[in-house]
C-alpha cells in the first residue's frame, strides 16, 4: 500500500494513501516513526475495511519545512483537516505513540467524531519521553549540527532501544532512513524540540468526555512509556478495555505483530465494523 496521494494544508504537503472497501479505519503513527509501521496491518485489513495511512507533516514522505510547527496542536489541526478532506463520518481510528495525543486532541478539542479508538503504547497523558528524548529536547540546535555519521548512529541506537525483541537490519534501516540527509537530520531534532507536555495534561483533563468505545493496548516491556501509564490512561476513560502484550516493547508492531493484529481485528469486529 503506497502513499500515492497528497493533501495540501496551510503550506504543507501531507502524503496519504487509501485502499480496500468497507468501514473506514484510519491509522495514526508517532515519533520518530511514519505510516510505514502500520502498513502491514492496513494491508491485512483492506479486504474488509477501507484503510487510510498518512504521514504527519515533518515525518516520512510528508513535507519537512523548518518553518512549519510540528507540535501536538499543529498535528491535531492537520488530522482534523485531513479527515474532513476525506469526507469521513465516524471512522475507526488506530494510533501509536505520538498519534495517540494527536487523535485524542482532534476528537476532544476539534470534535472530530470517531466510531471507536484503539491506542497502542501511546503518548497521550503525562509524563512521557525517554532519557535520550529529554536530552535532545534540551539541546536540539547543538545535536542538529553533529556530523551525519554521528547523527545516524544516534538515531539507530535510539530506535533500536524502542524494541524489546531487537530489530532486523532492514526494518531498522527503513525506520532510520527518513531522518537522514539534509532535510531529515534537522527535522529529527525539530520534532523533539516541539514536544510540549501541556497538550498531554489537557488531554488527561478531558478524558471523562470520551463516550466512544476505546481499547488501550500496551507492550508489557515498553521501556519508553511504562505499562503503568497505559493502565492509568485506560482507568481514566470510562468503559475502556486494557490489553497487556507480553514480550513487546514500545515498537509493538514489530515486537508482537501477531498479537497486535489479532487484537486489532478482534476489536474492529466487536464494534460491528
From TrEMBL:
Gene3D superfamilies (UniProt xref): alpha/beta hydrolase (3.40.50.1820)
Hydrolase among keywords: yes
GO terms for MF: hydrolase activity
Annotated AB hydrolase-1 domain residues: 23-257
Keyword match Hydrolase: yes
Pfam families named in the record: Abhydrolase_1
Keywords (A to Z) from UniProt: Hydrolase
SUPFAM superfamilies: alpha/beta-Hydrolases (SSF53474)
PANTHER family: MONOACYLGLYCEROL LIPASE
UniProt protein name: Alpha/beta hydrolase
